[in-house]
Design a protein that fits this description.
The protein is α/β, with parallel strands linked by helices. It has helices at residues 5-12, 60-71, 91-97, 109-115, 125-129, 141-146, 148-167, 170-177, 186-198, 210-222, 232-235, 239-245; strands at 19-26, 31-35, 51-53, 81-82, 102-106, 120-124, 135-140.
Length: 246
């Protein structure tokens, strides 16, 4: 499971056996903006004159954050400093021990940072950006053609999981996935999952919609990382997702 941008890059390289996306998992950026100071009335324009740690340039978290800034009238080169020198897994520590006023963090790290009194969650990047196919499943075109039963079975399982997540509480989900987060207690994990439920982060079906795919490519173009858009109806194969819903 990766971001669909990988499929776009591969297709644009001109590869004959390109990658097809056959099931979408999440539909929003999962990072939250964490402030050093408490701010119950945060506006994106509050970032003017500040330093933010947004991840590495070229990654979708960075591109999506940059897109949100520009949508809110901020000049990312003049109005603030985006410190893209810090690796993903070191961002929380760099923020806690550094001078930046803001950092973007995924859950459960964002909630853990807040619980430790090292910052305050003030906004959701994914909520501000709108729907973007953030994570999806894909395979080479040849693999899908030669193994339709496997792809269909996998997509059916994805849809079953999506339905289960929709119908169960954050606490129930946390209890099921806690073994994957051994360093996070159940209450913290529940809180993190509820945040994702609140911003509608998970797709309800494996279908990847064209509107969301087009926004992803707009985000990439706005960031200067994509020179040519790839065709939705070639890269996205919704056949298995639609069959799963049936």
């Amino acid at each position: 499971m990766l971001g669909p941008e990988a499929a776009i890059y591969v297709y644009n390289e001109g590869k004959e056996d390109y990658i097809e996306v056959f099931a979408q998992m999440t539909k929003r950026d999962g990072s939250f903006l964490v402030s050093r100071e408490k701010n119950d009335d945060f506006k994106w324009t509050d970032l003017k004159g500040t330093t933010v740690i947004p991840g590495r340039k070229g990654g979708v978290p960075y591109m999506t954050f940059e897109y949100v800034l520009k949508q809110n009238g901020l000049d990312t080169k003049k109005d603030l400093v985006l410190d893209d020198s810090i690796k993903f897994d070191l961002m929380a520590g760099a923020f806690a021990g550094g001078d930046a006023e803001y950092v973007t963090l995924f859950e459960p790290t964002a909630s853990m940072t807040e619980a430790q009194g090292k910052g305050y969650i003030v906004a959701s990047v994914g909520e501000a950006s709108g729907e973007i196919p953030y994570t999806a499943y894909f395979a080479k075109k040849s693999y899908i053609e030669n193994n339709p039963e496997i792809v269909q079975g996998f997509t059916n399982a994805v849809y079953k999981g999506q339905v289960w997540v929709k119908e169960h509480t954050a606490r129930e989900i946390a209890e099921k996935v806690q073994s994957f987060f051994p360093d996070t207690d159940l209450d913290m994990l529940t809180n993190s999952i509820q945040r994702y439920k609140d911003i509608d982060a998970w797709n309800e079906t494996p279908v990847l919609k064209q509107e969301a795919f087009d926004r992803l490519q707009t985000v990439m173009q706005t960031a200067g990382e994509l020179s040519q858009k790839a065709p939705y109806d070639v890269i996205v194969n919704n056949k298995f997702a639609k069959e799963a819903i049936k």
